[in-house]
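Ticket reopened. Same input as before:
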Amino acid sequence: KMVKNVDSAAEQFLDANPQFAKQYYDVNFRPKVISDLLDNSRKTALDVSKFHDLTTVEESEVLFDLVRDIQDNLQMEKSVFNLMRHLSFMLRADRMSLFMYRQRNGVAELATRLFNVSKDAALDDCLVPPDSEIVYPLDMGIVGHVASTKKMVNVPVTSFYSEFVDELTEYKTKNALAVPIMNGKDVVAVMMAVNKLDGPHFTAKDEETLNKYLNFANLILRVFHLSYLHNCETRRGQVLLWSASKVFEELTDIERQFHKALYTVRAFLNCDRYSVGLLDMTKTKEFFDLWPILMGEVPPYDGPKTPDGREIIFYKLIDYILHGKEDIKVIPTPTPDHWALISGLPSYVAETGLICNIMNAAEDEFFQFQKEPLDDSGWTIKNVLSMPIVNKKEEIVGVATFYNRKDGKPFDEMDETLMESLTQFLGWSVLNTDTYDRMNKLENRKDIFQDMVMYHIKCRKDEIQNVLNTRERWGKEPDECEEEELQEILVKSEVLPNTKKSEILEFHFCDFDHSELDLVKCGIKMYYELKVVDKFHIPREVGAPFVFTAVCLSVSTIAQKRLTGFRTKRCGDVEKKDEYTGDLKRYYTDLECMAMVTAGFCHDIDHRGTNNLYQMKSGNPLAKLHGSSILERHHLDIGKTLLRDESLNIYQNLNRRQHDLVIHLMDIAIIATDLALYFKSRTMFQKIVDQSKTYENWNDWTKYMMLETTRKETAMMMTACDLSAIAKPWEIQSKVALSVAAEFWEQGDLERTVLEQNPIPMMDRNKAADLPKLQCGFIDFVCAFVYKEFSRFHVEITPMLDRLLNNRKEWNALKEVHEAKMAEIEAAKKAKEEETAGAKQASAAQSQSKTCTLS
Amino acid sequence: KMVKNVDSAAEQFLDANPQFAKQYYDVNFRPKVISDLLDNSRKTALDVSKFHDLTTVEESEVLFDLVRDIQDNLQMEKSVFNLMRHLSFMLRADRMSLFMYRQRNGVAELATRLFNVSKDAALDDCLVPPDSEIVYPLDMGIVGHVASTKKMVNVPVTSFYSEFVDELTEYKTKNALAVPIMNGKDVVAVMMAVNKLDGPHFTAKDEETLNKYLNFANLILRVFHLSYLHNCETRRGQVLLWSASKVFEELTDIERQFHKALYTVRAFLNCDRYSVGLLDMTKTKEFFDLWPILMGEVPPYDGPKTPDGREIIFYKLIDYILHGKEDIKVIPTPTPDHWALISGLPSYVAETGLICNIMNAAEDEFFQFQKEPLDDSGWTIKNVLSMPIVNKKEEIVGVATFYNRKDGKPFDEMDETLMESLTQFLGWSVLNTDTYDRMNKLENRKDIFQDMVMYHIKCRKDEIQNVLNTRERWGKEPDECEEEELQEILVKSEVLPNTKKSEILEFHFCDFDHSELDLVKCGIKMYYELKVVDKFHIPREVGAPFVFTAVCLSVSTIAQKRLTGFRTKRCGDVEKKDEYTGDLKRYYTDLECMAMVTAGFCHDIDHRGTNNLYQMKSGNPLAKLHGSSILERHHLDIGKTLLRDESLNIYQNLNRRQHDLVIHLMDIAIIATDLALYFKSRTMFQKIVDQSKTYENWNDWTKYMMLETTRKETAMMMTACDLSAIAKPWEIQSKVALSVAAEFWEQGDLERTVLEQNPIPMMDRNKAADLPKLQCGFIDFVCAFVYKEFSRFHVEITPMLDRLLNNRKEWNALKEVHEAKMAEIEAAKKAKEEETAGAKQASAAQSQSKTCTLS
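Engineering reply: fixed in the latest deploy. New output:
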């Protein structure tokens, strides 16, 4: 009792001397308190039950505990629970609750997370498990109001709020104080205190206290919320990147592509199970399915349809099971009573295109989900998120449905966003599966046309009998004959070389004098003379049809459409490759010879009678396919296509290395016939010739040349062959030149009529009289170099150069005759002009004569 | 003085009665202090300069300020600065600094963020701007050591650390205390105090103080760090989704696709500028470029190469400028001295495939970046992040280089991750641009083959002279003639109908007796008899070649490969569509008649002599292209291809609506010739016939029928025509049946040789004797229904049914003869069996006779 009095006196003194009291406190108490609070090692939680009065609580300790809680990465709910327990004591509130804000289907709602927290409560009793959540829409209740207005409310009497939760929980809410917890402008949660214990309602002071502690609650929830958002965004990025990785792996069909992507992202989806239903994309029915409906024989479809008017038919379901033992089920043509379809949700999504986020599926009124476990594991459908997979044309191609978020909570807006990103990506990627289909179709169409082309251009069985008359002689087809039997035919029919020197080896050989069949026979002979038939095991029943087909393609089939002269210019000359190789064979291998001769046969296959420039100007698909040397690459293409046909493949018995080389040489030889490339490479040819002069020893030179394909200058060889008509005797050259000119004039006509352009003089029929002048230019600027250098290279070629020079003289003489005539006309014109103006027109008409006089 | 004594007495009392003192404090002081601290409205920062002693500092207020700082979303640096200022006072440290941890190029480093914080410092003086950062590698200095070990260090003497920063800052570090700030297991920053003011070094107590405050620093940095990570991940997701949206918009080339994606994500990249260089993908040179090098004429390339061996050539640069006025520059074939290439960095990245993250570009020793401003805006290169764009084949297709992060800091590992996700996505998406190229190539190849097919199958100019002899008669080509001139030719050559009834209208018409040319003329005649030539303005110079081409394609070209009998079966019958339409024309429109006749001409174009099943089994591209009715869809395809050629398009003067209808009818008519569909729809045909019987009035029925294409039953009409040989006089039927059978046997032979399967009896040459039995079955199960129902439909058809039944009798008779013969043989065999075992084999051989006896 005495002590009490002394205490009372001291109290009076201290009350009277606040300055002293504060000083004493700062020195003696405060450091100790703060020091204790900051001590990291002191981990024991406060025993809140011992608090007896606000003023006696070591309040700071509570705060520091909170900071440590957050720092130690503890459960958000535990930290907030501790704070709320403390708050409910300070506010004298009977209970406090925390409601988390989230959105589903674009609609906000609040869900109980901590419920009925009182100062003596235990966390486990207050933490609401996901399946016991009470969910509030924002348009009802106190908490909904707080979340909508984002402002604190103090409700003295709850009569004007219909609290349906009270009925659920059999608890009467009399008054309440609730406050929103924000992250920037977004509501994260609502905290509510109900039923003031020591008064009729919460006071202004309670509001103040709650507001003060909000900072801490905010901080806790902010870290929690940011972690959650970060986790969701990270998963979203992963889902997109992994899907992309699969989608771009290869071009494939929609089923495979979707499956690869959906399987690879399974770990990021954070749900128990998901299924994808693929929709039939058929828009219009075939007449044989449509007519029975039109005739009233079959009832028309009256089920739901996609927004673009398709009947909703799931032709395949893929079911990904992640709970328990991982499994994938593929259900082709699932029946409508399959558990994944029977609810009607996928059809609804396919019909409306809406994203549907459903919680407590078993209790859903609109869709009837299976309430029983789906399998032996006892797993049941709880929460469902379903969305359409929509392609870039806005068509729904499928429906993806996700079941039961891993943590038991319903899917929220972040899940919606993540899954939507995935389905959006998948939907867009249908461009690739559509492309795959288109590509296959295109490839098949190309193959069909290619087959048709081969059918039409290949030497027919009856045609080959003109060369290999096996029916007559042996009573069977060539491919049924022994090689000896075929050989006998070739010898008997004088196709095979006899003792006298073959005519094709003569420089003056002219195919004008030969029938198509003769040319075919000459062609076959060339292979024999090169001695490659036996060496490379060219089957005789293949070689003959190959030469027949190639020759016909270069000559007759095309000639029908074009000028007969074309035949002379294009064919034959190349066959006389032998003419040159005759001497060059020393350093050309047999394989190289065969490649070049074959290239010769193929080098003008399917020529169009017009040049590369015309293909470009007329927008021919050839020009779109090949960037340069357009026709040459086409001749090569078709030549190789012939050689891919087993019945024409003269290379079929070559080994891999030989085959690659022979094809490579053909590539070079045929492309090289593009004169544009000749101008590129002619200085190089000159260098080779120069180099050859530095060798004194003929054998050393031969050895040196044999080492490297480049040195053999296949390209210039091809040019020399292609131009050889210019070095033929004048009778031949003059005929060939006219027929080539005629082909040019035909193109000139086409340029005028089709392209509506004026042709260059060389192709202008109206300038036909200039042919001799043009030929002189052609010799001077294009041909002379080739034969001059080749003669320097091999002296045996000199006769060709001589003939070229002779032809130059002939053309020049014609040119001079023409020029004299023109001068004469001009003079006459001038004279007449001075006489009458009427004579003018007549003279002009005469100068435009369409005839080219050659002699 | 007295007061002092009283104070002293009070002090003594309080010291002696701690229980009382604490109670008094709790009641009178603590609530006030805490209340002040929690007061949100009190925003004034603490004046740290007034602190004189730790014990007198209102320490809690500092802590609560910190919490508010974080909560108010203030700058991280400001919050930490406040904490450090307070700490430097408490630790008696001369200065404190904060170093942020980050990674670049996969290597960790620390960068000064807050430097030289003392108790009196101002934030602006301590906050290090990005371009003044000092960067520490982790393998040197105290802070590097702390970040590596993740442990606090107290360094009493710094001699054993080489502090290069001291030299930079002209400050002597004597002793230091440093601690790592963690986020989970990751270092986020290092905080360091240097030079203890009131002692030789920092004490254990200082370590304790620092540790205590670490909780707060951690929390601040954690929120900061999480926000940053969340922002980066969100941007990454956006970058991927937006890129995908563009990539999947359409198939296009690499330049366009990259540009679309790179442009659309610009806002998320958070940098001033970026450029993308596209690499030449050429792997091998053309021979004409290669040879000059091999010949030593051109020096070989000795610059850097990509890992897959390509020369590094940037053929295009796209430069995105986001600082100042947004702009995009496209630089085709940039020179190596372009500012974006001159540093050598893009080439280095293209060569090594490495990601290069460079800060302070101007001072980089390895790469020479332009130090001067790039443009008038004065913008210079500071930080650079460059990385390869790699496709799924692991080839580097381009290099993306990003300049100057928006906030001035160097690019960190999050930037590397984000940009890498983008370039990875772009690289993978090259599948689509490659596909685009392949697709165009394929399309062009298809077009080339299609052109070649058309060239080969189209009626030639000289061929059409057999029908329209315009050269002989008018001295010009058909397309140069007037319609009247052509008409005159047709009349004169008796192609056009004369007075007597046309032979083709007779049921017994048999094309066996007609030449190909006759059939062409008949075909042309049909269009005239239908009176559609003038009505639908079919140009005569188009109609004749069309019929010629279609007939030849269905008959002669194909017949070369197949049986002559084929010709009878397939061609001609359909031309006699008129036979039926003759009476049905009452409710068929002229347009419908023309469509059906044209469909008849096209319905067997390019038939392969084998059936649909064979196409499937042999893997023909036709079967890959068409899922059902394979050959029928092919006939339709080629027929339409013919009609797309202007010189064959008999529909060229129809209007849009007419054209669509006529094509639609052809679709139906030609597909309907698939017998598999006949079985599907024949009950429906019966229904139509039943319905027709319910009309008493013939005109009403006609009107009813005319309303709807379905009711006219084009499909069954086509079947009736296609099967008509079965209803021809016996002489014709027996010939046709044998030729059809011969075609089947040919397929059977192919099945045996090519597919290595046993054919069905119908196609088995060894079961030829069963033909009469098979024909009976064919009549009973396929044909009878058609003609029975058609006769019910139109009484005029009855003669066909009669002949069908007659043919049935004939076949049956043959069947019985054969069966009798077989029974006889069987009996003989049995008899012989009982005699000798040797006779057995002879009998079997006889029963396998290859000959089918018909009479």
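The two ends of chain A are 155 Å apart (CA to CA). The mean pLDDT of chain A is 82. Please confirm and we'll close it.
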